[in-house]
Amino acid sequence: MKQFLTLWGERYFYAPNLFQKLLSLLLWPLSLLYCAMMKLRYKSKRAHDFKIPIISVGNLTVGGSGKTPIVSSLAARYENVAIVLRGYGRKSKGMIVVSDGKKVLVDVATGGDEAMLYANALSHAVVIVSEKRERGIEKAKEMGCTLVFLDDGYNKHQIKKLDILIEVKSKNNFCLPAGPYRERLWRGKNALVIQEDREFKRNVKLIDATDKMVLVTAIARAERLDPYLPKVIEKVYFEDHHYFTKRELEAILERTAAESLLMTLKDYVKIRQFNLPVSLLELSLELSDRFVTQVDTYVTENISIRESSNEE
C-alpha cells in the first residue's frame, strides 16, 4: 500500500490525470493556507552566521531532483569539506558521524542510503546525519572542516548560507497539498537557480551489463532514469529510501528470468552484501565553468572573510 500511495503521489504532483487535476483544484484553498504559513515561518527566521562557508543544494518541490550528484560533484573539488544531511529513511535518530573523512563508521541502516553514497563516493569528506542541521554544522567545525554542504537545506532559513536550487519542471504549480511545492523562492531570499543542460549535464555509464536486466529502484520520481536506460525486461519501482530484502529481490529475478538487477548506486549501497547479480547505472555530472566559478567565488570570499576576522 505504501508503495502504491508513493507512486500515485508522484503522478499527482508531476503528471496528473484528469481526476488528480480536479482533486488538486479542490485542495487549492488548503495550499493557500499552507503557503502563507511557510511565508510567515520564513519571515520569522533570522539567519545565524556559523563563521564557516555553507552551501545548500536543494529544490522547492517534493521528490527527487538530482541533489546528491550535484553535492558530490561540488564537494569533490574541496579539501576539509563536510556534508550534512537529515538522513531520510535511516533506522536511527540524532546526530551521527557516518564518515570521519578517513573511514566509514556506521552501516547503511544507521546512516541512510544517501549518506552512505556520499561516504563511499567521497572518501575525503566528513559525512554527518542530523535532524538538526545546526548540530551537524557545529560537529563539522569541531572536526576541522572549513566548508559545509547541506543536502536539501533551503528551508533552513535560520542558517546563513548560499542556496543552490535545482529547477524542477512540473505541470502543477500549487503548494502542498494541491501541488508539489514545499516553499516558494521568497522575495528577499537570494538563491542560485540552476537548470539541467545549462549549469549541469548528466552522463550515465552502464557497468556489468547483461543481456536480460530488470530495473529495480527506490528513488523518488524514478521516471527520471528513462532517458538513460538501456533495454530492460521490466521496471520495478519502490518508494524512495525503501530497504530491500534479499528475498524480494530474488523473487524479482526469478519472476522475470532476468540475468541481473539494474540499479542506481543509491540502491546498490543497501544490497551490496546480498551477493546478487547486479548491473549499475553510474551517474556523473559535467558542471558548467560559470557555475563552478560562482561557487568557488562564494567559498573563497567567505574563507577570506573568516581568516581576516580571526587575525583581528
Outline of this structure?
With 312 residues, the protein is α/β, with parallel strands linked by helices.
What's the total count of β strands? 12
Main β-sheet, in a few words? 7 strands, mixed
Strand order of the main beta sheet, please? 3-4-2-5-1-6-7
Order of helices and strands: HHHEHEEHHEHEEEEEEHEHEH
Write down the domain tally.
2
Number of helices: 10
Examine the coordinates and then state which fold CATH places here, giving the name of the CATH topology of the largest domain.
Rossmann fold
What shape does the CA trace take? globular
CATH architecture of the largest domain, by name, is 3-Layer(aba) Sandwich
Any low-confidence stretches, pLDDT <50, length ≥5? none
Beta-strand percent range = 15-25%
Task: Name the CATH class of the largest domain.
Answer: Alpha Beta
Helix content: 25-40%
Rg, please? 20 Å
